[in-house]
Design a protein that fits this description.
Keywords: Membrane, Transmembrane, Transmembrane helix. The protein is an all-alpha fold. It has one domain. It is built from 2 helices and no strands.
Length: 56
């Protein structure tokens, strides 16, 4: 969980720097990609967690 939170914080920081600084648009793109990866990882983690319980 801490890794996902760290990825989201990095994505927000890169996005803000990329959006505010001229000529650093690539940081905004990298921030968006990191945010998508964080969402993907959290989805995998949630899917694995719900699959462990077997209904009786």
């Amino acid at each position: 969980m801490a890794v996902i939170l760290l990825l989201v914080l990095i994505a927000v920081a890169l996005g803000l720097i990329g959006a505010l600084a001229k000529g650093l648009l690539y940081l905004l793109v990298i921030g968006i990609v990191v945010f998508i990866v964080a969402l993907f990882l959290s989805g995998l983690r949630a899917g694995r967690r719900s699959g462990r319980r077997m209904p009786r």
